[in-house]
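Standup notes
- DV: blocked on the single-chain target, sequence here:
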Amino acid sequence: MEISWIGQMLEGCKLTVQLFLVTIVVSIPFGLILTFLYTGKNRIIRALVGFYILVLRGTPLLLQIFFIYFGLPYIPKIGQHLVIADRFTAGAVAFILNYAAYFAEIFRGGILSVDKGQYEAAKVLGINEMQTKFKIVIPQMFRISLPAVANETIILLKDTALITTLGLSDLLKVTNNIVNRTTNVSAYVVAAAFYLVLSYILSVVFKQLEKKSAF
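- DV (later): unblocked, structure below
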């Protein structure tokens, strides 16, 4: 194994982490908004959000990446306005839309797990619906959903490898280039170590969050 490999793989790892962070920072709030719309009183909005979640969770993320980057420009009449020329941006959009749907379902499950009696108690105490949602429901929802969010986050880290299909030099793409150039498959072992370290860091962070939220 050459020392130069590490530098190249660290550069690829940087792009992997960037995609991961962009997706997390945007998809979690977006997923929360979808959850509120999905559990709201408007039937039409509920149906539209439900359909969105069904489509995004029911089709492969790789297909969604291809559609956003290669397919959007060919949509009749409006395709020319939907072109996303930058490959990283196109990939990030696909990841955000996909993971927002997953987080929305996780948060919805968390909301449904909150005891209905707490809503009635808040109403008796004169707490309005908005205050009940943000001061009582959401904190409990996050605590209940945290293990599932942690699991989905680690899956996201591994899924970032799909961005290599757009020709971007993420960790997997760089590793493949090294193996093709040197015919030394030990580079795959090093790449696996990178993913394991990142996954371990995420696991530690979420365990700490779970400990704090338990109080």
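- Follow-up: DSSP finds eight helices and no strands in the chain.
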